[in-house]
Amino acid sequence: MLGRETSQRHLLLIALPLCILLSLVLFQRRHPLFHSSYSKSVNGETTASTSEKPKQKDSFQNKPPGLPKESIAALSNETLGFEKVFVINLESRTDKLDAMRLSASLSGFNFEVIKGNLGKDIPEKALPGPVGKGPLKDNIIGCWRSHLDFAHTIVNKRLSSALVFEDDADWDVSFRSLLQYFALGSQMLLSSPANEAPQSPLQPPRSPYGDGWDLLWLGHCASHTSETDTRRFVISNDPSTTPPNHRTNFGGIPDMSPYDNTTRIVFMNNGGTCLYSYALSYRGAQKMIFYNSMNYQDHPIDFGINDLCKLPERNFKCVGIFPQIVDNHRAAGMKGKDSDISKIGEAQGERKQGFSYNIVTSVRMNAGKLIDGDMDGLKSQWAEELPKLEGGLKTRFE
Question: Higher pLDDT residue, 11 or 141?
Answer without folding.
Answer: 141
